[in-house]
Amino acid sequence: MTRISDIISQIHAHVNATSLSKNALACKAGLAPNTLKKFWEDDWNPSLETLQKLEAALFSGRNDHSYPHGTPSSFTFPSLTGKRILLIITGGIAAYKSLDLIRRLQDCGADVTGVMTAGASEFITPLSVASLTGNQCYIDLFDLKEESEMGHIKLSRDNDLILIAPATADMMAKMVAGLANDLASTLLLATDKPVMLAPAMNSQMWAHPATQRNLRRLKEDGLHIIDPANGLLACGETGPGKLADVMDIVRAVGAFFHPKAQPLTGKTIILTAGPTHEIIDPVRYIANRSSGKQGFALASALTEAGAAVTLITGPVSLETPMGVHRINVESARDMHEAVHAQLPADFAIFVAAVADWRTEESSTQKMKKEKGGIPTLKMAENPDILASVAHLKENRPEVVIGFAAETENVIEHGKKKRLRKGCEWIIANNVSHTDQIQKGVVDKDVMDKGVMGGNQNQVHIISDKDVISLPEATKKETAQMIVHEIIRHYA
Ligand SMILES: Cc1cc2nc3c(=O)[nH]c(=O)nc-3n(C[C@H](O)[C@H](O)[C@H](O)COP(=O)(O)O)c2cc1C
Predict the structure, then answer these.
(1) Is the omega angle on the peptide bond into residue 199 within 30 degrees of 0, that is, cis?
(2) N or C: which end of the chain has fewer CB within 10 A?
(3) Sign of torsion, CA 417 423 425 426?
């Protein structure tokens, strides 16, 4: 789901949940009353500015403690004003997404010109690209009018960035080989401008040694790669190879033009994530619903901010974020040991949902039902990783942060936990939506909002001085806001 459609669904939810009329919401956002006239229609296509105003209106007054440093969109939409981007669209099924990409790049101020391969024209038309960009869409190397001025050389130089999205396996191979047998490959060879590519293909194609070899070569050649996402592919298979989310591509382009100062450069961070598994017997264990998504998102955001992150994770099925050093563990005791083995570090951030208890003894053989009777599991307490690090006399990280999953009185419980554990911050969140999942309500909305396993989160950063409540956002955005706060306080 793109950020834009995220905002649109939030507006829908808000209008549904309150008695506020569409016109009243528009007025609150400082927009003309009829702005939301086509609100329910599928082709409602508001400008980014309109959405940002609506989003600001939605966020205002939503929390008891409002977040003073911007809404998530301020972390989401880069300024590309004045930037000229040559978008090369190649012949993958994801070519249709390049139409949305054009709009989103323009929303950020970019001037986009399209180039399409013959393959791409099988999926979308040059007319659509030309209409959306407002510029001619180039497809033919031997277009006489253009070539009288050596059009391909001009095209390859007249832009600030060349972005290939989607980039096929074929185009990657051509670039590695230095082929120049169509307009796109020729101008890629002729350009002196930076090139970014967002590959998209079937996961077997992506995993193929040839593609992986080409990927390495392209990186060595200095190309900027926007990694594909993991997910359901158009061919029905699931795995890596899906075109990165359109807004992630826009963000990557933004980050290219505005390389962030990396304020956490030189900082080492130990971060835990995911659940722990406490063994009962070789086939059974005690676990919890943690998916690891928030911890992994935080590891990624901290790395982007320049930190060297060691991610110690319980069993999860998530890809390691780029640049992160990952250590896999299973039980709370493994995690405790791994954390202490990684010290010293500048920061320690404990996001993992660590089991409080384990069975005192685990059976080496599968426990048999036929033996009769219901087994009684005698429990033993697990080590308290957060407190053990926060109370260290030697090698204590400068900043120790713990997460608290609460189902009621979130802030009060979070404050008490912070004092008990002796850490700088507790980041508390309400995981009570999981109740609804337990009750068998498997509605997608609930799954999305359920904090454990879901994609949204709303957290409160509790320190000895104050409580900063962040707005509800995706886990990725929440991670970016937390990193923003870490930088504000400690970088
Ligand atoms: C329906 C269909 C979908 C395709 N999807 C992809 C894709 O997602 N990624 C890819 O690398 N190739 C895909 N291909 C194969 C490319 O279209 C093919 O390699 C073509 O030569 C690419 O040309 P180009 O790189 O010049 O655009 C697909 C082919 C078909 C028929």
Answers:
(1) no
(2) N
(3) negative
345 and 429 together in one domain: yes
Pairing status of strand 467-469 against strand 459-462: antiparallel
Q: Regarding predicted confidence, which is higher, 413 or 155?
A: 413
Under the banding of pLDDT at 50, 70 and 90, the label for residue 196 is: very high
Number of domains in the chain: 3
| Residue list, annotated binding site for CTP | 356, 366, 383-386, 403, 417, 421
Q: Which residues pair with 462 in a beta bridge?
A: 426, 467
Q: What is the distance between the alpha carbons of residues 299 and 349, in angstroms, rounded to a whole number?
A: 10
Q: Answer whether residue 75 shows pLDDT above 70.
A: no
CATH number, domain with residue 273? 3.40.50.10300
User: Is there a single domain that holds both residue 253 and residue 281?
Assistant: no
Residue 235 is among the residues annotated as catalytic for this protein:
yes
Asked, as a colleague might, if the bond just before 375 is cis with ω within 30 of 0, I would say no
**Domain-embedded: residue 67:** no
Whole-number Å distance, alpha carbon 123 to ligand 1 midpoint, is 9
CA angle 292, 328, 368 (to 5 degrees): 90
Domain hosting 411: range is 268-357+379-490
